[in-house]
Request: fold
Amino acid sequence: MDLAALWQFPFFRNAIYASLLCGVGCASVGVFIVCMRIPFIGVTMSHAAMTGAVFAVLAGVDPLAGGFALALACSFFIGPLAESSRMNPNISLGVIFSLMMGLAFLGIGLAPEPKTEMMGLIWGNILLLSGSDVIRMAVVTAVVLAVIKLFYKEFKAVMFSRNLAAAVGVHERMIYYLLLALCGATVTVNLDTVGGLMLFSMIVNPAAAAWQFTWSLGRMFALSTVLGVLSTVSGIAASALLDLPSGACVVISSSLVFGIALIFSPKRRQIGHG
Reply:
């Protein structure tokens, strides 16, 4: 069955709409994470959201609420842990990531058979999303983009240097935690698209690919969202045409986009010749 024929089915239209929202939301947050050189935040947040959703299912409550609660809790724990231990944030993220990974698989092991819903949280189930799921994704994505626009100058200052941002009067700690919270909200609402194990690739890969082509933060945002949408939509299309797992296809597509960007990167050539 070709894509035009599939478009008549609501489940496929919902999957395409969700992939568009995933591409825009994850790629936008990913720009800050890539530029601040803390890509492990995407890994940690996606696994925290997955863990919260797993235990929410065990408790019989909304997985989205559980995922966001734990991701938010982790976002406010990462900063103080790094500051109090005087370690690189990536080390703190590694500790939290390993804990979340262990708890997630513990929760999955405690779940009764069948574990269909748990598997959906790990690998994603974008073809099973309802119209209300898509609306929820749209609302969260719109809020994330609105916050980025509202605090764009502050985010940009903190991204350049937290110390300099504080020196010019920016509440850098609040802005940093807000960025972590935005990342937590984005990965939580997108758990069903790619799955908690692989969602971080949609945060890092499009932004890293966009970085290869521009020094301008504004253009990087625009290009990152375009590449994010390209990755998700092409992945869903390949999944439908080839009858392959959708989450895996999206991740492979985003990785291919980054690989192609790296090959043709003018910045890489400039740095190499410099």
In short: The mean pLDDT is 85.
